[in-house]
Each structure stands twice: as structure tokens, then as C-alpha cells.
Specification:
The protein has nine helices and two strands. The chain is mostly helical. A hairpin with a 2-residue loop joins β1 and β2. About 5% of the residues have low confidence.
């Protein structure tokens, strides 16, 4: 069944219709929340809270945008509130991140896993250090894969602003990654 019909049924009180909407969008919402919180339990809790907020706000949904766009807007606002309250917007210095692991000859597979995990951790720490408005656009586009027009609707900003923020976010991230990409003549492919 299409979203419009499910929404109309849910507005009339059908819990089954809203459950179908939850099933359709829960993976996308969870993934987006996880990309900001980096904690599965927290992402799970926040996702449930987001769907509760959406359910309570559903009578005010007027089909002015797609349901997914509306739900992403609720999700982003909820995550922003959570991060602000949790004090997650701290700056991370490059010295706190540490070095990438060195080569361990005896366990190459384990080394690859450690390096990969270290790279992910580094990238997420550097992402968290970006200003929120840039981190959100970068996450929605490069991690969640949303198109520019949907990001524009979710954030209520022009597509030009989306493009500008995305360009600046990528530039800031490249600048922060630069010390890790070239060390003593070696190249690390992140």
C-alpha cells in the first residue's frame, strides 16, 4: 500500500497502517540516527522516540511534503535535541585521536580489521568535530545517500545552500584528514 493511503488510515486510528509505515522507514531512521550517535542502544531508543513523536504529530501532517521527508525532519530535530542535551558537540583534537596502528606481521587479517576499525573511528571523530550544520548535510548526502532536493526539504534550506554546506563540510573534513593521509612518505587510503 502506498504511503498516502497508510497515512490516511493511520490518521483514522489504524495502528496496523502506522505499523506498516514504521516497518517501511525504521531502517532508514535507525541508520541516520546511528550515524550521529555511534551507539546502537541510543539509536534504537531515539528511533522509537522519533516514531512516537511522528505518531502523535500525524494528525497535523498535511501532505505538504513526502512522508519520508517529514519523518527525516522530525528525526533530525530529535537527534539535535538529544546531542545538545547530552553535550555531544565537543571538539576533538587530532592529538586525542592518536596514531593509526602499525603493521603486525603475525596476524594480517586481524591487522586489517584493526586498521579498518581505527579508520572508521577516526572518520567518525572527525565528523563529530565538524559544525553541526555541516555534519548534518554531509551525513544526509554522503552516508544516507539522500538527493539534494530531499535534503533541501528536510532542512528547509535551498538546494544551493545544501550544495554550499556540503562543499564546505567536505573541504573541512579533507583538511582534518590530511595529516593522516600522508605520513613519512606512506599513503593511507581511507
Amino acid at each position: 500500500m502506498e504511503d498516502r493511503k497508510l497515512i490516511e488510515l493511520a490518521k483514522e486510528g489504524s495502528q496496523g497502517a502506522f505499523s506498516e509505515l514504521v516497518l517501511k522507514y525504521q531502517a532508514r531512521v535507525f541508520s541516520m540516527v546511528l550515524s550521529f550517535t555511534r551507539d546502537r542502544e541510543t539509536a534504537d531508543d531515539l528511533s522509537q522516540e522519533i516514531f512516537l513523536k511522528a505518531y502523535l504529530a500525524l494528525p497535523r501532517f498535511r501532505f505538504g511534503s513526502e512522508f519520508g521527508t517529514w519523518l527525516y525532519r522530525i528525526s533530525l530535530n530529535h537527534v539535535r535535541d538529544y546531542l545538545r542535551k547530552a553535550g555531544k558537540r565537543k571538539e576533538v583534537s587530532l592529538e586525542e585521536i592518536g596514531e593509526l596502528p602499525t603493521r603486525d606481521e603475525s596476524a594480517e587479517k586481524k591487522e586489517q580489521e584493526i586498521v579498518q576499525e581505527s579508520r572508521k573511528k577516526l572518520l567518525h571523530q572527525l565528523l563529530e568535530a565538524l559544525p553541526v550544520k555541516h555534519r548534518i548535510v554531509l551525513t544526509l548526502r554522503d552516508i544516507q545517500g539522500l538527493p539534494y532536493d530531499e535534503i533541501s526539504r528536510v532542512l528547509k534550506i535551498s538546494q544551493g545552500t545544501v550544495d554550499s554546506r556540503l562543499h564546505r563540510a567536505r573541504k573541512m573534513l579533507r583538511k582534518r584528514l590530511a595529516p593522516y593521509l600522508s605520513r613519512e612518505g606512506e599513503r593511507y587510503a581511507l
